[in-house]
Write a structure and sequence with these properties.
The protein has 247 residues and is an alpha+beta fold. It has a single domain, classed as Creatine Amidinohydrolase (Alpha-Beta Complex), CATH 3.90.230.10. It is built from 4 helices and 15 strands. Strands 8-7-9-14-15 form a 5-stranded antiparallel sheet, sandwiched between helices. Strands 1, 2, 4 and 5 form a 4-stranded antiparallel sheet that branches. Strands 3-12-11 form a 3-stranded antiparallel sheet, with no helix packed on it. Strand 11 and strand 12 form a beta hairpin. Helix 1 packs antiparallel against helix 2 and helix 3 runs antiparallel to helix 4. It starts with 5 loop residues before the first helix and ends with a strand. Bound molecules: magnesium ion.
Length: 247
């Protein structure tokens, strides 16, 4: 795990703040009638105007600046002018921002207009999974405690945890070691050192855990077509505790 210096931590905080701002801006745009491509264009401009650059754009060939994943799409939705948001949808927006070589990464699932109580509960429980997880995140403790807490909370609400997609270390690159599954045993994973940044990102399905990839090679959907939600923050672990950089 990559331990950061004080000056690197300053840059991570800034990258995190820009990522948070982009997501807050995204929230103001989401309404019935807007396409996910329009969202992408507006958020891309916002990131560039705020002094960052969108890390997803061109990442392994990804064509967008955000991932826009509607309803049964778990993650990695390619923004499209054919995908128009409608009342009752939920949309997961994942954003990454690079600032002076350092990365922020965060995601939220937003309601589009009025949504069903079932979808609202999925969004709320997925968000709470993150907080249950980081309650167990501490330098000197095993990372598996975080993973275990997320799984326990999700499953206790009747939901399932995606296995194939995981959180990650973050810093000079968006995806660094270690992998941070949203499931597992408390005794799994490495001991967390001080001064590391991690992206903790529960991806929680209303139905079964199985997923499939779309023909575009990016979009990940639930196999049972039931909705999925995503909640992610970049966090910093120091000897003083956990600081959420993208909230
Ligand atoms: Mg991530």
């Amino acid at each position: 795990m990559n331990q950061l210096t004080e000056s690197e931590i300053v840059l991570m905080r800034k990258a995190g703040a820009l990522t948070r701002d982009a997501l807050n801006y995204a929230q103001t745009l989401i309404k019935p009638g807007i396409s996910t491509l329009e969202l992408d264009n507006l958020i891309k401009k916002f990131i560039i105007n705020s002094g960052g650059s969108p890390s997803f754009l061109g990442y392994e060939g990804f064509p967008g600046s955000i991932c826009a994943s509607v309803n049964e799409m778990v993650v990695h939705g390619i923004p499209s002018n054919k995908i128009i948001l409608k009342e009752g949808d939920i949309i997961s927006v994942d954003v990454g921002v690079i600032y002076k070589g350092y990365n922020g990464d965060a995601a939220r699932t937003f309601p589009v207009g009025k949504i069903s109580p079932e979808k609202a509960r999925l969004i709320e429980v997925t968000k709470q999974c993150f907080f249950e997880g980081i309650a167990h995140l501490q330098a000197g403790k095993r990372l598996g405690q975080v993973s275990h807490a997320i799984q326990k909370y999700a499953e206790s609400h009747g939901y399932s945890v995606v296995r194939e997609l995981v959180g990650h270390g973050i810093g000079k690159q968006m995806h660094m070691s270690p992998n941070i599954p949203n499931y597992g045993k408390e005794t799994d994973g490495p001991i967390v050192p001080e001064n590391v940044c991690l992206a903790i990102e529960p991806m929680i399905n209303m139905g079964r855990k199985e997923i499939a990839m779309l023909e575009d090679g990016w979009g990940i959907v639930t196999r049972d077509h039931k909705p999925s939600a995503h909640y992610e923050n970049t966090v910093l672990v120091t000897k003083n505790g956990v600081e959420i950089l993208t909230l």
